[in-house]
């Protein structure tokens, strides 16, 4: 067997694999002999089918299977030995496949297109400057959190008349002019009055009673397209082309009566006796809000770092190859138009992945299995504490953590989370970071830009 590489340019190459009969013959013979032993064919005793007949029946299929196995193994070995930094997987040239005469050929040449990762270097230091937004926790933020928690643990009631903080349960029905549209959209869902973006519609809904009918534009019931689509029971894509008005018939009014701010609520939220007064309750909430806001600030910092590196490095990718590979490797059929539509976002994500991998390598960032187990134990302990369960048995926590990590998807997510945390420490200690104190509203405005 002979494997060679022909470089097309810095991002594309063709790998040629020459397979001779000597490479696969012995393996095919073993397969055929094994089949002969087990074959039950009318007119012949088991194990006594003539080898000529076995070869005629199974020879070509066995040869194709063994050659494919050899190609897979040898290609992987070659990529590893030559240290080729490939993107995706090698793609066989389709024109070669069509010209193979499996029945009569003994020797074969297979060619594969390969996409190569761009070669680049990163020099990091304080020449990179970024703003880090330290978000102040205002009293109104704490008040809102307390109010939201009280509602979350409150009781549901069904009053006769709707107020501004209520939800309306009812049916959306598509109209054609003044009449219901034949076979139009019909879906039972809710309207959260506070979330209605159109103030005139919001005012009209306040004071609603069961049986009331309101004509409305569903795109005005929320600022989020996902919520609009869910209310109508359709997809966001279907929503974009929707022009119809709708009739909403109120069937029921749902009101959440907030829970009292007392020891019972404190215990439900933070566990028995973890908090013993409203001041402690608010302090605990402020601590949680502060932590979540740091996460938001970190996310903004990482986004700024991504943008800076992508702009400065201007990496190129083997775009044509990657589009072919996406289509070939996708579990579900995908059209070239769909690939084109989503490729820019995919390309940006892949470029950042290559940059981040280089940063991880340059800064020798590693995450050990032991660290992952300890981190998982911490997550489990938090979850158990919030449910009022004891967390002092370290052996049981370790056993549960190891069981969680047997799920490959869970383990991958936790590893990624820990790499993110370690890389954030690298960014904050390596780059020149200027802290800026802002309110949450100011931060939202900055992010939205």
From TrEMBL:
Keywords assigned by UniProt, alphabetized: Isomerase
Record-annotated Trigger factor ribosome-binding bacterial domain positions: 1-148
Coiled coil: none
InterPro entries named among the record's database cross-references: Trig_fac, Trigger_fac_C_sf, Trigger_fac_ribosome-bd_bac, Trigger_fac_ribosome-bd_sf, Trigger_fact/SurA_dom_sf
Molecular functions per Gene Ontology: peptidyl-prolyl cis-trans isomerase activity; protein folding chaperone; ribosome binding
Keyword Zinc: no
GO biological process: 'de novo' cotranslational protein folding; protein transport; protein unfolding
Organism domain of life: Bacteria
EC number of the protein: 5.2.1.8
Class in the EC hierarchy, top level: isomerase
Listed Gene3D superfamilies: Trigger factor ribosome-binding domain (3.30.70.1050), Trigger factor, C-terminal domain (1.10.3120.10)
Statement: the UniProt record of this protein carries the keyword Acyltransferase: no
Full protein name: Trigger factor
Native organism taxonomy: Bacteria, Pseudomonadati, Bacteroidota, Flavobacteriia, Flavobacteriales
